[in-house]
C-alpha cells in the first residue's frame, strides 16, 4: 500500500503545481493559494511516508 500512497501524494503535488500556475497566469489568487495548499499537503504526506519507511527499515535492522 505504500507505493500507491506515494503515487497519490506525488499526483497531489503535481495537481497543486498546476493549480498554482493556473492561478498565477489568470490572476486568480484563490486558485493560486488552493494550488499551494494542495502542493504542501502532498509534500507533507510524502514526508510521512518517508518516515514510515525509515521506521520500518530500522525495525527490520534490529530484527536480525
TrEMBL record:
Superkingdom field: Bacteria
Entry protein name: CsbD-like domain-containing protein
Protein family per UniProt: Belongs to the UPF0337 (CsbD) family.
Disordered: annotated segments: 1-64
Segments of skewed composition (Basic and acidic residues): 17-40, 50-64
Domain CsbD-like stretches: 5-57
Amino acid at each position: 500500500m505504500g507505493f500507491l500512497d506515494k503515487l497519490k501524494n506525488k499526483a497531489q503535488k503535481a495537481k497543486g503545481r498546476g493549480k498554482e500556475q493556473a492561478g498565477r497566469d489568470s490572476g486568480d489568487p484563490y486558485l493560486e493559494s488552493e494550488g499551494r495548499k494542495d502542493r504542501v499537503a502532498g509534500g507533507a504526506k510524502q514526508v510521512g511516508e518517508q518516515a514510515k519507511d525509515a521506521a520500518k527499515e530500522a525495525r527490520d535492522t534490529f530484527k536480525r
